[in-house]
Amino acid sequence: MTTISRAASSLACLAFLLQVPVPSAAAQDASPPSTDAPAPAEAAPPAPVLQTNEEDPWLYRGSNIPHDKAWHFGEMDNGLRYAVRKNGVPPGQVSIRVRVDAGSLYETDAERGYAHLLEHMLFRQSKYIPSGQAIAAFQRLGATFGTDTNAVTSATQTVFKLDLPNATPTSLDETFKLMSGMVTAPTLSADNLKQDRPIVLAEMRERGGAALRVQNAMQETLYQGQPLAERQPIGTLETLNAATQESVRAFYKRWYRPDNVTVIVAGDADPAMLESYVRKWFGDWQAKGAKATPPSFGEPAAPKGFAGNNRELAPVGETRVLVEPDLPPSLLVATLRPWNQVVDNIPYNQGLMTDAIAQAIINRRLETRARAGGSFLSASVNTDKISRSADVTFMSVTPLGDDWKEALEDVRGVIADAMTRAPTQAEIDREVAELDVAFQVPVEQERILPGSQLADDLVNALDIRETVASPKDVLRIFRESRALFTPQAVLDHTRGLFAGTVTRALFTTQEEGKVTATALRDALIAPVEPDATARRVTNAEPVSFDTLPAIGTPAAPIADQPTGLLDIEELTFANGVKALLWPVAEEPGRVVAKVRFGGGTRSIAPEDAPYLTLGEYALVGSGLATLGLDDLDVISTGRKMGFEFTVDDAAFQLKAETRPQDLEDQLYLFAAKLDLPRWDENPLRRAKAAAKIQYDTFATSPQGILSRDLDYYQHGKDARFATPTPAEIDKATPEGFKRVWSKALAEGPVEVQIYGDFDKAAAIAALEKTFGALKPREDARSTASAPDIAAAQPSTKPVVLHHHGDPDQAAAVLSWPTGGGTLEIRESRQLEILTQLFTNRLIDAVREKLGVAYSPYVYSTWPVDLQAGGAITAVAQVDPKSVDVFYQTAEEIAQDLIANPPTADELARVTEPLRQQVTRAASSTSFFMNQLEGASRDPSRFGSVRSVLIDFTRTTPAEMQALAAKYLGEGNSWRLEVIPEEGSGSKVAAK
């Protein structure tokens, strides 16, 4: 069964954005209107009639899981199965998934990598798509490459994905035609193989480095003796280089056949019409020959001759140590059981629910131990069914300090206690309450679940050979099962989690000799005493909002006025707080509360920069009022509450998605964080340890170095945009943390946004007691003594940074400074069109020329809260010898954009996908409220929202040419490259 949640809605938003009348209730299932001139009316096709089998749908055969009646399931004479459903989120979109039941585990030894190679070749050329024209074909339909159009190959399946915006009968027919041609009649020629092979090999190179070495070592160790141990979807150099037209076609013929394919469609269209397209374009596809028998995936096996311990645990088998100097010490222990095809029925799911409660109790105890300080930074337990090869319980541990044995013993002690003595009913009730909320939210938000996720959930269910259920049925089954969640049942399931065929382990260490495979095995076998210290204290004083101190004297707003934008209202309080309220009935059960305060990055002194990073780790955990982090967990049990904290250029932000019944208390938590902060030191100590551990990991790849340093160089080496080094982290103190963040939390301005499903009067009453009761604050913009944020200066001499990853990896960056602020907001949006044009040209030039797998891309940043600091940035992952070629190519394209304006078709390939992106995004309140951040202090933002669609989609070739000339001229750019450091690599300790 599957549960999901997300939000989108509001045709009023679309009507406003598109400047058209709001449709009547009778018309609210229609696609959003277009701003283009009306097209000639299409001839109405005959009304299709559903041919699905509603009595015995293929997904539920043998299962007593209630059928999700929104899905309609069918089978065609050629064996192809399909499922279709109507879903209007976002309006006008149809999500199509074509799933092939074959991945890397279906390959022979000589075919390793073929499933993934075929994924590329199907996009290269097919019956209805000329060579290299797939991206352009789908862009003309409004689909963005990489976002709306994509594919993925795993060990067990290959899935082709398309989210078609603004779907019409004509565009749907064309889309099904193109996708059917890709899957049923690809052009698997020697020439196409020659073009795609370098791209796949480049992907292999770009995915290399420490992370891949750990992934490979994990697979080889944990699944030893099974195909999964050596069947990575990327394949091997030997097999890919040896691939021929004939061998690739043989793999395709074996697995790409209608009786091995499922088409899944969910979207804003009549299910009968969606079914008719499936039957029209896939119905004539015929398999040749008998269907191949899927290969055996094997089973985990215990080591021979094992005469180990007398525990109820699986015997310890293979252990391995991997030396990676740039990765934090980490331990992964896996208890494996054979994967068996289950009958996905109600008792099976009740067992999964009990397993989830057992895991949650253990993980809460482990987190309690970690928060208190001790031998490990983090530890967790989770179960998963891996690639239909093994049913696995994973135990992961990140030790603190050098004593990894103590960390392992402490974690094992908590688990041993959970296996020895049943949990208390109070512990069970707490986790049941958390699960109840997790299952209830999708019920409340069922109307706003997106079709793309519904389609993906069904794909995942097929992959693991299970079913899906409606959110209502999932919640009902869970609530009817509560009597089963007894202490003894949870104890039995806890023991079952760690029983199995064999236990295997991988330890990643920074220094050779610190850990050996033998020592690791001995530590796993050694007896351990149960540790009950992390069990919840059941006789502790209850934590309740009723006992918390008041923020201050409640105060009513002194002004409440409409903004003139949709139904958004602005409240003003005497203390200077302003609030934007937008109640929306179309987003049931979902409320977002957002608080922007203070001056953000620009208000922090450069010498205090490390506290920015530490604040993102530890500020929330430091507590508020009388509540520490554990208390915050307790007080939010059974509630939907959050505490997301982010640092922006010119403001700090707290955000949470909550529910109408939890909004008042959520607002209290946010206001108390500002006015009644608490300063627990343990979260800071843990944050310092985490920041230091993470720092070295950045050096493992070019992408990591860019994540660490690109912002720093783009902002003129401003320390506030640097990732603090371990030495800088060490210098941070609790006193310094309190000094910096006390000041930041006490500064204004304060802007509150509340939008979604809430009662306006109740929200205002809650604001009066919380943000209306805050003390007046100084404006950080007028009191800040920190220097302005700088920008990088143009230079043809590149900044050269080094990574410790594989010697054939590099990254190149070319960046042109632009601007910032709201006065030129239209220009910032037009830059998005320009960078998409740049990206398309760069893909055409670089991907084929250099064999780049992950397409080079160009993006624009424009800080609306600052008057400068924006940039156009081109990035590519390449091999080191191609860095200069990338620079040359990107500069040539930049100059060509100045010299030669885009063609009408080239412009349409960009503006139509952008139109659809904005239109879909505007079906949710979040889109508008994100645009309005800071609008209570800068009212021009209310006006600028009105032109957002026009600004992103309406332009001319001449305007693009002028914009390119303004920013992309010769001598305006600067460069950064990340190249390998000599001597990079890893070592593996002997087994």
TrEMBL record:
UniProt domain Peptidase M16 C-terminal: residue ranges: 244-433, 750-910
Keywords, ordered alphabetically: Hydrolase, Metalloprotease, Protease, Signal, Zinc
InterPro entries with a match to the protein in the record: Metalloenz_LuxS/M16 (IPR011249), Pept_M16_N (IPR011765), Peptidase_M16 (IPR050626), Peptidase_M16_C (IPR007863)
Signal peptide boundaries: 1-26
Domain called Peptidase M16 N-terminal: residue spans: 93-229
Low complexity bias spans: 26-42
Similarity comment: Belongs to the peptidase M16 family.
Protein name: Insulinase family protein
Origin species: Novosphingobium decolorationis
